Structures are given as C-alpha cells and as structure tokens.
Amino acid sequence: MFFSTNIKFLRKRRSKTQDDVAFALNMKRSTLSGYENEISEPSIEALLAFSKYFNIAIDTLIKVDLTTIGDSQLRQLERGYDVMMRGSNIRILATTVDSDNNENIDAQIADINDSYWDLLVSEITIDEAIGAVIHGGSRSDKLSNIDNPVVIQNEGVSGFTAGYTDEATGKTYKFNIHSQTLLASSFNPELAYDWGLVEGNSGLWLNRFDLWGTGLTQRRTPYNGRNYEYISEDPMLTNRMGYGILQGCADKGIMNGPKHMG
Question: What is the rounded CA–CA span in Å between residue 104 and residue 58?
C-alpha cells in the first residue's frame, strides 16, 4: 500500500506544508503526520477527503506508487478524476475491503444524462463492445478497460437451474422443479404465489438475485415444444398466475423478469 508515501509526495508536489493540508481537510496536523509516517490508518472519510483534495481516485491513491510515474501521467490521472467527479449525482453506497486488503467503493450515479457515462463508454474498445453483444445471451463480458463485474443472467421459467451443496453434509439440492403448465392447471393464484416464494427463497440460498423466470407468452398451438414454459392459452389465467409468481419472488427480494411476451 502506498497511501502514506503518496499523500506526502502529492503535498510536496503542490508545495504545501502539513499545516496547509491539515487546515484544508479540517484535521489536526498531528493526524496528518500520523498518516504520512504510517503511524495511523485513515478512515474511509479521510480517504475520501484526501482523494477529493488531491484529485486522485482512492484506488489509485492506495495501490499505485505515484512517485514512480511521470508528471504527464499524473496529470492524466487528475483529469480523469475531475471528469468523474463533475457528475452531479455521485453517491457512495458502501465501502468494503477484500481479503487482499484492496479497497472497493460501490458508487451510484443517478442521472442517466451525467457526463460520466460518456467517459465510461468511451473506455470500451470496439472489439470488446462487439464481443459483449455476441456473448450477451446469458452473462456479461468482463471489459478490461472499465473493470466491470461479470453479471450472470439466470435462465429458467422452471426455477433456478443451479444446485446448492450443503457444506456440512455434502448433499446437493436442485431447485428446478416445476412446470408452468402444471401450476396453471391448479387455477390457484395463491399456489402460484407460494411457488414464487419457493423460487425466491432458492435464489437466496444460491446467492443469485435475478431470474428470467416467468413465461407469459400465450400458448397458441399444442405443437410448440416449449409449451411447458408457458402458463396457458387463456390471457386472464396467465395474468393471474404470472402475477402470483412474480410477487412471490419479489417478496423474497428476487428480480424475476417475465419473458417471451407476445
């Protein structure tokens, strides 16, 4: 970690004394000295304050030895931070530290018209963008320039297709258990809701929180090989039963996306 080295380097680069920086950040000079000399660890509030003051992202401030890079590259880092922070609706949601002591900041940008999105998209190469579209049926690609997390889309109107293994017993349990047609044959919206609860609860066990899990397409012909995915040829029955499934999942905190509507 290079935090102590970096803040001392950046302070001197700006020809600032410890008193200058401490006053600007509303902290005691002794506190700043403790950070620079690795006597004390900064809180997340302090990290945010230093990041804003020096125009350097927290991740860079901690992980990159800024004393080893050229002035031109350092100015680019500062400009990149400026563009990001000019967004009008950046909100820090959470901060975590992983097993390797890497700081992770979860931020949200509420305004779709924020200029930050243009900056983000401009970092995606054309080859990676094309690849993301080609491979995007069930999961997102990892785009190297923006370090996005991979998102898996769980496919299955009969429930999550994955299995859960109990560490204590070694037994594996499957959650893919029902037919939408069979469920609809009950004509029971309350039962559909109960199935939604089961489906949602299985997602919690599997640590998966979204599912393309309710087929609302009308069954138009008995020869459709995927009829088991769909509820009924009757639109009102499909509506009532589908709503029950969706509401049951939602009450467990699972996003269940209806699909193939037509």
Answer: 9
